[in-house]
Amino acid sequence: MHDNENSANANANAIAVFGEALVDDFITEQVVGGAPFNMARHLAAFGAASLMITRIGQDANGASVRAEFTRYGMTQAGLQVDSSAPTGRVVVERNEQGHRFIIQPDQAYDYIEPAPALAALKAANPGMLYFGTLAQRASGSRGTLQALLGASAARRFLDLNVREGQVTERCVYESLHQADIVKVNEEELQALFDWYTHDRPGTGDVASPALRTACGRLLRSFALQGLIVTLGPRGAVYFDADGGVTVSHSVQAPERLVDTVGAGDAFSAVFLYGRAQGWPLAETLARANAFAGAICGIAGAVPRDLAFYAPWIARWQAGADALAVA
């Protein structure tokens, strides 16, 4: 674990989130997104003590992002405003194959400044720090993240979330070395195998010795505590540094699949929230799977109506996971 002598003083339940807040531009409509911001909004809705560290522009899209901070009751202590760079924007083009995402360069989240970020982090003193890779594509924000990692005693949760053309293997390599727990999907896991283990066991059978051996190599190579592999409708599996494997195939499929946008972010949010609350690992995975499945039943990564969260919170508080969500 990458901790230091200040770890005992950290607010164990607080979660800091570093990365992009942006707008997905469908031309006909603009939807606030960004994997870190999706996750941070869920955490806020759950009632977690959370801090979102990001940067927006002085523009209409920035106002939309700020409105989401307000809607979710989130602190803006980690929100920076850039006087020249625009708020992050991804152009989404619909085609016969589905969607094509054009991630714009030189956006406000590429310029997250260290001094205000460090001040916000120090005040929050979180027990967990979440980060990804997209906000590391530019030297400015990458340097700020390094400063935060160096200054914080928090455990580090890396959601790899690789976007083609935006992330280098070197960035992935360095991020893995700085993480304690890493979350990947099946495609990302295969990329890690290609780069770092030179074998490619399939993920169809999570009990296979070949898969466990390869994941064990990754854990040892990067001194990780845990590796989470999300399996879509098949659930998720957690490999730990001691060779333990926790599998949860418990998935609550939505009545109607709308889209899978933000499912991984929803999973991460419940996983981090559950670990902060002290839930058992198997229960945490099952609840994260169920909530991610529910997000697939709505349009977009977060609900338009915050009442969406109430049955989930009530069920978790009651421990009534066998009950269907109303």
UniProtKB/TrEMBL annotation:
Q: Name one Pfam family in it.
A: PfkB
Q: Which controlled-vocabulary keywords does the entry list? A: ATP-binding, Kinase, Nucleotide-binding, Transferase
GO MF entry, a single one:
ATP binding
Instruction: Give the top-rank taxon of the lineage listed in the UniProt record for this protein.
Output: Bacteria
Q: Which residue intervals define the domain Carbohydrate kinase PfkB in the entry?
A: 28-301
Per the record, the coiled-coil ranges are none
* Keyword Isomerase in annotation: no
Q: Which family does it belong to?
A: Belongs to the carbohydrate kinase PfkB family.
Protein name per its UniProtKB record: Fructokinase
